[in-house]
Amino acid sequence: MKGSSPATPGGLENFTPKFDAQGLLTAVAVDADSGEVLMTAFMNAEALEATRTSKKATFFSRSRQKLWVKGESSGNFLAVEEILVDCDQDCLVLRVRLPAQGSACHTGERSCFYRRLPMNGPAKLERRLIKA
Amino acid sequence: MKGSSPATPGGLENFTPKFDAQGLLTAVAVDADSGEVLMTAFMNAEALEATRTSKKATFFSRSRQKLWVKGESSGNFLAVEEILVDCDQDCLVLRVRLPAQGSACHTGERSCFYRRLPMNGPAKLERRLIKA
């Protein structure tokens, strides 16, 4: 997926997000301090606008087909410090802060990526330690 | 998306990936040292198996509808050190190493996420520095 958006005279590029057929971008939330990947979800245009306005990560739930403020039921809001955009403008990285001792995963783990698939051998998942 | 895979007697869980309607998982490649997100792409079952076997990140190209060994034309292979699996088993994080002075992005940038969308103001992209 080559190509880039037109640059403006000041050297800044326009943000022209490439939503998929369902109107969604992939969003990857990472810990603003450690860089650890916490979770991934999807955003439509409305979720992105709500995130910029509220500074709380807001996604689009594909199963419920509606906006979803992460943490609205658990209290584990993700305070968004920075939004990064990829070359294709179809994926975002959100640099976020969790509450102290908070968890991004519905299982109570800090990160959804709390298991590894070994590179060799049978396809069994192993637990891993996640740096805070 | 609640629920987890059945645990085996030894405490390990089975890997039961939840491929989407197109047979794909989202894969997020991060620098094994810095944790920086380098790129995202998609994997089907074959791409995942090829990645585990070759230890080189191998994706499925949706536009070309075929396997794609990252770096096969540019030389910027991603050597995979670890594969992390999320709670839903529909997303993977690959901890990878780029060649020295290598770039994960087709633009020549180290990471595809070389721009930020400011949290306030007009939707113009700004460049950012990426730690190596």
Observed structural traits:
132 residues; Ubiquitin-like (UB roll); mainly beta; 4-stranded mixed beta sheet; homodimer; 1 helix
Q: What would you say this structure looks like, in words?
A:
Two copies of one chain form a homodimer. Chain A has 132 residues and is mainly β. Chain A has one domain (25-127): Phosphoribosyl-AMP cyclohydrolase (Ubiquitin-like (UB roll)). In chain A, 8% of the residues lie in helices and 34% in strands. Chain A has one helix and nine strands. Chain A has one helix spanning 45-54; strands spanning 13-14, 25-31, 37-43, 58-61, 66-69, 79-85, 91-97, 115-117, 124-127. In chain A, the strands form three sheets. In chain A, strands 3-2-7-6 form a four-stranded mixed beta sheet, covered by helices on one side. The longest helix of chain A is centred in the middle third of the chain and has 10 residues, at 45-54. The radius of gyration of chain A is 16 Å and the shape is globular.
Provide a brief overview of the structure:
The structure is a homodimer of 132-residue chains. The first copy, chain A, has 132 residues and is mainly β. The first copy, chain A, contains one helix and nine strands, in the order E-E-E-H-E-E-E-E-E-E.
